[in-house]
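Title: Comparing notes on inverse folding

I've been comparing how different people in this forum approach sequence design from structure. To keep things fair, I'm posting one structure and asking everyone to reply with a full sequence. Here's the target:
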């Protein structure tokens, strides 16, 4: 009889809750959140409930801890093992974590914590517990509780480990509630632990059977017949100090050899031209179309042959795109205008070219008559105050529609070009136009920064400049390069340059 009374007393003395921040040995404070609902199986088949719970605390070996028994909102008990009866009417994780948040505030800032949740994962919130907490009547209460619980866990931001007590569900025989609860557990550990609780990290930590700094296991399952024999190593693993041993093993056994092999393989796969950052230079003459093909066998300018990138074709048949460098078709002669009521000066200036018009106005201002000087001064004033958008609209209007525009307004818009360099270049200087063929074809003007697709490649126009062997050089910068598994897009440019071993990333299309 005396021995029977002594054992629980010793267990309780060895593992009493630690509300004070002074632990028996250094380490984090362990917050046990234990499901006290009626659905949870016994913690151990060979021990009474309270005795099993107290014995579990001895696995901490003096580590400070707190106990939260939970069911529904009004079924929360702190540091009272005698309340462990598994008779809770509801199972609501939110109020357990809310109580954990309250306990955390009792400790000094900087205290380390770890939360251990023992549960069967079957969520069953009490409807009356949420009447004053924003739950809508007639709505999906479980979904609402799940959302609120995950938000609270993210706010607490403490490591969370879950010990699932119960039978392992068999595929095809799992009730819907149990499937949803298992998913809820995974969502909880991800909300608390972030990327360290990803499926890949969990698989790796299980493989090495140890907790590291980054690779940690957060979900453990204990079948009812396994009891404390299974719980003990789980608890010891959770409370043990984090060590980088598992990461070092992973790095030594898998990562380094695999990385070297993959680096060599990836280098081979991305070595061929083109790649992101490579440049194609297209040389063009004024008015002569240039037909481009993609990924055809062609001779390279610096010798040898290539099968990828851009090449020239003699005609548009089989081309991926056609480029032309041509002057805009803007007519500045005033064709189509009503000129019957014009004065002599306006009649003279209207059909003249821009440079001829500039010289004529200078002549009016320098040596012209009084009327001509006034005319030049007035035209210059009106032209400079002419809205650029309106000038562009009038000058770009087809000749068939110009009778609606006063001839003097046309002349003023034309004179605006003498002082508006950007609009003059836009309306009078040659430009490169592209016409694509096939799926996703487009027609557009190419300027620095323009995105253009030719064949299966995406380009950014880097430069359009006069000179070279012909009238203009169009520099196309590879932006999108389809490749095996998208490697040429995904791999960093520095990596690709190291493995491609080419003297230049630029070539002239030939």
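Reply #1:
Here's my take.
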């Amino acid at each position: 009889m005396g021995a029977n009374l002594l054992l629980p007393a010793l267990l309780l003395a060895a593992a009493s809750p630690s509300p004070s921040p002074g632990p028996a040995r250094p380490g984090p404070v362990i917050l046990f959140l234990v499901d006290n609902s009626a659905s949870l199986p016994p913690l151990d088949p060979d021990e009474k409930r309270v005795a099993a719970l107290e014995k579990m605390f001895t696995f901490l070996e003096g580590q400070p801890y707190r106990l939260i028994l939970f069911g529904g909102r009004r079924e929360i008990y702190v540091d009272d093992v005698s309340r462990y009866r598994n008779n809770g009417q509801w199972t609501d994780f939110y109020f357990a974590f809310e109580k954990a948040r309250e306990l955390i505030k009792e400790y000094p800032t900087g205290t380390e914590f770890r939360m251990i949740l023992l549960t069967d994962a079957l969520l069953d919130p009490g409807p009356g517990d949420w009447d004053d907490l924003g739950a809508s009547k007639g709505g999906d209460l479980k979904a609402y509780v799940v959302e609120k619980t995950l938000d609270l866990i993210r706010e607490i931001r403490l490591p969370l480990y879950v010990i699932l007590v119960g039978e392992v569900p068999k595929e095809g025989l799992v009730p819907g509630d149990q499937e949803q609860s298992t998913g809820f557990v995974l969502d909880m550990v991800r909300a608390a632990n972030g990327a360290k609780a990803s499926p890949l990290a969990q698989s790796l930590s299980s493989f090495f059977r140890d907790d590291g700094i980054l690779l940690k296991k957060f979900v453990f399952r204990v079948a009812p017949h396994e009891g404390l024999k299974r719980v003990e190593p789980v608890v010891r693993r959770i409370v043990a100090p984090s060590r980088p041993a598992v990461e070092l093993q992973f790095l030594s056994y898998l990562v380094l050899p695999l990385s070297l092999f993959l680096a060599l393989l990836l280098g081979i796969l991305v070595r061929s031209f083109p790649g992101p950052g490579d440049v194609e230079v297209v040389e063009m003459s004024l008015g002569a179309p240039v037909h481009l093909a993609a990924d055809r066998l062609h001779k390279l300018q610096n010798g040898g042959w290539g099968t990828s990138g851009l090449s020239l074709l003699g005609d548009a048949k089989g081309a991926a795109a056609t480029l032309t460098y041509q002057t805009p078709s803007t007519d500045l002669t005033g064709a189509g205008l009503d000129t019957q009521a014009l004065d002599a000066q306006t009649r003279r200036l209207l059909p003249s070219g821009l440079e001829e018009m500039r010289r004529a106005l200078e002549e009016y201002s320098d040596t012209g008559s009084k009327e001509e000087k006034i005319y030049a001064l007035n035209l210059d004033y009106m032209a400079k105050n002419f809205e650029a958008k309106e000038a562009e609209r009038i000058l770009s209007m087809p000749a068939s529609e110009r009778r609606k525009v006063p001839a003097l307004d046309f002349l003023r818009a034309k004179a605006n070009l003498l002082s508006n360099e950007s609009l003059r270049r836009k309306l009078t200087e040659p430009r490169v136009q592209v016409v694509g063929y096939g799926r996703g074809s487009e027609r557009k003007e190419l300027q620095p920064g323009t995105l253009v697709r030719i064949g299966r490649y995406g380009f950014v126009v880097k430069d359009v400049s006069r000179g070279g062997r012909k009238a203009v050089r169009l520099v196309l910068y590879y932006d999108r390069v389809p490749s095996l598994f998208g490697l040429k897009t995904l791999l960093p440019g520095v990596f690709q340059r190291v493995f491609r071993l080419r003297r230049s990333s630029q070539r002239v299309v030939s």
